Amino acid sequence: MAATTGWVTANKACESLGLDKKTLFKMRDDGTLRLGPHYAAFNDTFSRDSYRWNLTSVRKELRKKGIPFADPLSSGNTVLSSTDKQAEGQ
To answer: In the chain, count of helices (H) and strands (E)?
Structure first.
């Protein structure tokens, strides 16, 4: 595969998104995040745990699906789902 520019490790993705690894991997396994646009294998990939993550694509998909995560583009740094917004009276 091409250079890893723009792709980060699972640990860095979790840190940047404010998610734990279990949640990130669950979204990988249940199809919320897909091989190719959201995560990929590179030369240094030796297991599914060492896939690299495209933060731009992952953030876009989480926003689209209304899944909460630490979002530097939102005013509160977290995107709230419609259920969360209703609970907060927004």
So the answer is: 4, 3
What backbone phi and psi angles, to 5 degrees, belong to 85?
A: -65, -40
pTM: 0.75
pLDDT tens by residue, 50-88 = 999 999 999 999 999 999 999 877 655 444 444 344 444
Structural domains in the chain?
7-87 (1.10.1660)
Q: In what order do the strands lie in the sheet with 52-54?
A: 7-8, 52-54, 39-40
Which H/E stretch holds residue 7? strand 7-8
Residue 47, exposed/middle/buried by CB under 10 A (0-12, 13-18, 19+)?
exposed
